[in-house]
Amino acid sequence: MGAELVRQAAVAGHTTAATYATGPGRTREVAWHALDLRDPGSVETVVAEVNPRVIVNVSSGGADWAVTAEGPVRLAMAAAKSGSRLIHVSSDAVFSGARVHYDESCLPDPVTPYGAAKAAAETGVLLVHPNAVVARTSLIIGHGKSVHERAVHELAAGTRTGVLFTDDIRCPVHVADLAAALMELASGDASGIHHLGGNEALSRHELGVLIARRDRLDDSRLPTGLRADSALPGALDVRLDSRATQRTLRTRLRGGHEFLTPAA
């Protein structure tokens, strides 16, 4: 996600700075800065040095509370102090799936440590920076580089164990659509909560089949299973309703069948 944002910003001619935790990226058109979200001094130093008009936070530390929950709040505090706008990317993991369909008015009810960290970050970000944007999204699919796409290739090749759940449903979004939508939100005066999921609900297995067919893999080799029968914690059916946000955007958030079906 971060790499695609940097790419689009550079193409659009925006003066851009990007941060990294372990090593700088390869895009030469941007200035790279080391940043540790766990360190308030690091956050304040980088924000003061760059003095950005807008900050887009796409970081994720999984269930690491210091990175995923506390880090964005530190960043929001620094952004508010410097007068920078903030776009904070969150996740559909903040929802339990109890009501299946979730629009921007729905309150978080996470059932995993990662979801709890994301929900805490949302609350903290909007508390210290009331004009920030919290943009919730779903499974992000790229050009073969996402964790979901790599998993499908490994499962089809037999180099990975596991299954693709048929009862685990989300609204996957293409990374290019998501980045473009975030750029739109960053360029305007939006604030508050926005949903940026694709316009189609798919199970993990349905998504895997589409990826396999796009990449000319044998989709019959993809093992199936039920998340409900597994020991893995997490929501089953979470469908982000992104229609309200979509009406404010030029970028269309396509569904999986559209962005994964090869052009004729």
TrEMBL record:
SUPFAM superfamilies: NAD(P)-binding Rossmann-fold domains
A Pfam family assignment: RmlD_sub_bind
Source species, domain of life: Bacteria
Domain RmlD-like substrate binding: residue ranges: 1-222
InterPro entries per the UniProt record, alphabetical: NAD(P)-bd_dom_sf, RmlD-like-bd
This protein's name: dTDP-4-dehydrorhamnose reductase
